[in-house]
Write a structure and sequence with these properties.
It is a single chain. The protein is about 40% helix and about 30% strand. It has about 180 residues and is of the alpha/beta class. It has one domain: 5'-nuclease (Rossmann fold, 3-Layer(aba) Sandwich). A seven-stranded mixed β-sheet has the order 4-3-2-1-5-6-7, with helices on both faces. Helix 4 (about 100-115) packs parallel to helix 5 (about 130-140). The model has no long low-confidence stretch (mean pLDDT about 90).
Length: about 180
C-alpha cells in the first residue's frame, strides 16, 4: 500500500528561500508537480500552504500585494492545494506574519493523532515547530523536513525523521517557462 503523505508549506519561509535563489515568482510555480515529486511513490492525502493574509491599508503597494496574493491563492487551488491564512502585523514599518506556525503545528498534530497520514512532509525551517514534530513522531509518523541547501536548518535536520535539501536546480522544473 502506498504511504499516505501530507505536505505542509510555510509560505513565507518558502517564498523567501526561493527569492534568495531568484525564483520567487510563485504565480508561475507548479505546486502540484512539486508536491508529486516530494511524495515520490507515496500518495498525497493532503496539501496545505500557509501564509499571512494581506490587508489593504489604502496604499497602491498593498493593493498590488493583495491582488498578487489573490492570484496566488487561485493558483494554489488549481494545483490542488488548500491554504490557511494567518495575519500580517505591521510593526515599525515592517510586516510580521502571525498565527501561521500555530496553524501548521495544529495540522501536524491532527494528522498524527487522527491517523490521517503516514508521512508529514514539512517545507519549513521554523524550529518553533519542534514540539509538534516530536509529538507526531511519538505517534509513529515520519516527519520529513524539506529545506534548501543554501540555507539549511541544522536543527530541523536533527529533529526530523528524514530530510532533503533542495538546490536551485532542483526547483527549476517547477517554474513555468514563458
Amino acid at each position: 500500500m502506498k504511504q499516505r503523505c501530507i505536505i505542509l508549506i510555510d509560505g513565507s519561509n518558502f517564498y523567501f528561500k526561493l527569492k534568495d535563489l531568484k525564483l520567487d515568482n510563485l504565480l508561475q510555480f507548479n505546486f502540484y508537480k512539486f508536491a508529486c515529486s516530494l511524495v515520490r511513490s507515496g500518495k498525497i492525502v493532503g496539501s496545505r500552504y500557509y501564509v499571512g493574509r494581506v490587508r489593504q491599508d489604502g496604499t497602491a503597494r498593498t493593493d498590488k500585494i493583495l491582488a498578487n496574493q489573490q492570484k496566488l491563492l487561485a493558483a494554489l487551488k488549481r494545483h490542488k492545494f488548500n491554504y490557511s491564512l494567518g495575519y500580517l502585523l505591521k510593526s515599525g514599518g515592517t510586516f510580521h506574519e502571525k498565527g501561521v506556525d500555530v496553524q501548521i503545528a495544529v495540522d501536524m498534530l491532527v494528522a498524527a493523532y487522527e491517523n490521517k497520514c503516514d508521512r508529514i512532509i514539512l517545507v519549513s525551517s521554523d524550529t518553533d515547530l519542534t514540539p509538534a514534530i516530536k509529538k507526531a513522531q511519538d505517534k509513529g509518523k515520519i516527519v520529513e523536513y524539506i529545506g534548501f541547501s543554501h540555507k539549511p536548518s541544522v536543527a530541523m535536520v536533527r529533529f526530523c525523521t528524514e530530510s532533503r535539501l533542495l538546490t536551485k536546480e532542483d526547483m527549476l522544473p517547477y517554474i513555468a517557462k514563458n
